[in-house]
Amino acid sequence: MNASGYILFHTSSAAFRAERLATRSGLAAPRLVPTPRELSSDCGVCLRFEAPASSPGEAPGGPPADPSGEAAARAARVARDWLERERIPYDQVVAPG
Amino acid sequence: MGARVVYLDNAATSWPKPPCVAEAMAAFLRDSGGNPGRSGHRLSVAAGRVVAEAREAAARALGLSDPLRLAFTANATAALNVGIAGLAGPGDRIVVDAMAHNACARPLSEAARRGAEIDWAPVDGAGRLDLDLLEDLVAGRRGPGGGPGRGARVGRKAARLVVLTHGSNVSGALQDLAAVATIAELAGAVLLVDAAQTAGLEDIGLDSLPGAVVAFTGHKAMLGPGGTGGLAFGTGVDPEACAPLLRGGTGSASESEEHPAFMPDRFEAGTLNGPGLAGLLSGLSWIEASGRAELRAAELRLTERLAAGLRELPGVQVLGPRPGERRCPVLSIRAGLIDPASLALALDERHGVLCRVGLHCAPRAHRSLGTFPGGAVRLSPGPFLSDDDIDYALGAVEACLKEGTSP
Fold first, then answer.
1. CB contact under 8 A, B252 and A17
2. Nearest to A13 among B39, B52, B254 (CB)
3. The complex's ipTM?
4. What mean pLDDT comes out for the span A55-64?
5. 3-class secondary structure per residue, A36-79
């Protein structure tokens, strides 16, 4: 079972730039989605990505669970490193969980 | 009058556009009709993607690797207004070349009313800058005019801003952008480039000009529609130090009633011209597929062919660089005492040759070239013309001169 992380941007222009470069991000299943209301009052979009959930996986054969949150932290780090590398300004990376 | 039309007014706006441009604009209105950057639904996202692609294509055309340093505006005029008002203020000295279009000259007049000091850098009879004079003027070692004994004011402060007409819309003179950028950099000045005639066709190389800010339009050499353009910042110029002229909705930082400082929203208040940017993207994609260098070479060859043919006509004076000199595909002519307006009308009505007459919104340039206030007839080839079109236009000019231009 997966959990979603989010990259929030100050401007949708940066979000679209991120989407266009996401194939080389190393993130799992990156996708542009409306920004969840609990994360921001903005009316724009953000980049969602996936990492194994910290709760035990239920589906047999699914990705391994991440009880320590290690995979989520790693995915967030991958996201931040990639954004810096591409010089894409961002607001924050919300780790999956 | 025959049915043939030879359009030689590409310096005003390029025509025809590649067929894909109109198709892309129609497709945007039909398929991606949401507001780019304002919502998260599929039509808004589709529109946002088109704008993002257009931003990347425009940045590539300017040689800028970070597209987020480029903000779209309605045209080059809007971008130049932002740059002139935002990059210098009261008490600052601004140096501008004497080929400037009114898109620079009028905002500079306003800057002068607000307390800026404007110095005009002289050009020669073809519109080319004297770089030694420019360097002294920018550094504050010499006053405007440049001659011996002029401007010997010691200790004048260096210019804060240099405004450069990259390619003249009257003579086609093309200035040495890298050299002017170095002059500005040595004096600690920002270089604001009016690239209206050149962006899309010439190599701007903005990544290698960190102290430059480039104002461009989408509807000339970029082959997009009217209503598109922008302002692009070199890596050494902080966009946040340049105040915007418009403030408003950006789809970002919506909780705040203060306009955002970050790019590109800082200069993109209000809904962008989505259909126009779709067309601009299509025009730029067509240029990339055709080869920018190949297109430039072809247009310059046509321009030289036109200039050479015109020089052979008795009484015709060709304004602009000499054969083989650095230029863009624009030239103007005077034909003795013949009124430029009557010549242009005869070319249009009798031969279908379309050109632009008058002062070309650049009175200073015409003063520099010695053609003020009478103006001149401007001919500016584009990417869809052939040698035969140029020869036809030359024949038309010759015929008008022989027959006279009276109605």
1. no
2. B52
3. 0.87
4. 57
5. CCCCCCCCCEEEEEEEECCCCCCCCCCCCCCCCCHHHHHHHHHH
